[in-house]
Give the backbone structure.
Amino acid sequence: GQNGYLIDWNDNPRRLAKAANRAIMKAARLDPVKCLASVDKLSLGSNYAGAYRPVLANLTHTSLQHPEARVTFGVRIHDGVDASYLDDAINSIACQTYRKFKVVLLVDGPWALGERLARRYDLPLICTGRQADIEHCSWLHRQAVAQCDTEYYKPLDYDDQLLPNYLERAVKTLDQRGLDVYGCLLNTLQGGEISPRLHWPNQPLETMFTGNSDDNMLPHSSVLMRTRIALKAGNYQERAVGLGADDYHLWYRIYQAGGEFIRDDEVRNVVYRIHDKNSLEIRRARFGHSNKRKQLLAGAAAAGIAASLPLAAGNVDKKDEAKVPKTAPAKPGKVDPPHS
């Protein structure tokens, strides 16, 4: 019930076909990640996983390493987060309809953690071997791109997921149009519910190439890029210092290097998970909010001060006090998050 169903042989072809059909229908609903992981438990110390995991992966069409891969996934996770989210991310990769890909695991944390997670999914590993820090994320992707021997590179965070036809549509779009960078719109996963992420990105893609990361309109986890253009543009930064350092700075350098972009606004093939340890929140806590949000906060605060000045100066009669408009404390509503 974890990685397959057994059927009894029957000399009656009709009965055998019915039994096989029932088993296949049940097996189709199995979790591919649990299928791969549970092999370790089948036989202690007998190398069962090493011998049969590739066979099971190929039989279930959930292999994470294709011999003729055109795409390399770099899946990043850092220490101190819910590793079950990584199961969801890997599962979404395993379910892709386009199969010519391979996966490398990027771990920011001690080697013991990285090796344990790599064994869980039987993946090659790039690990910092250091205490996790938000500035390390771009270094991990930088190493993955430098080692990438496939035509395309696809970054994915541990807490995000892809719809099954994401990769097929992305590769087809870049192949047919000869472009360099593909992205799409997002869904949001919050409180167990998935809904369209409507408030960002919300501007045309061509408006983002200003050099200001506040103008980013290309979600990182939605991107598929040609490896050669990323290398031509200088690759990811060594350290992700500041807002946009983990993604937008590379987008801007690719643009300057002549790279061509497309954002597929017809689909929302990426699920962006909202939780209390989102890297965006960690980055904002470290480096502050975007310039646009700072200006909005400052403007709201200034409006409150300006409206209260006559009262503070004591120049308003009691009878006129009611005429002075009351200004609520500065509490702006939702603004465009320029980084994801």
Notes: Confidence is low (pLDDT under 50) at residues 315-340.
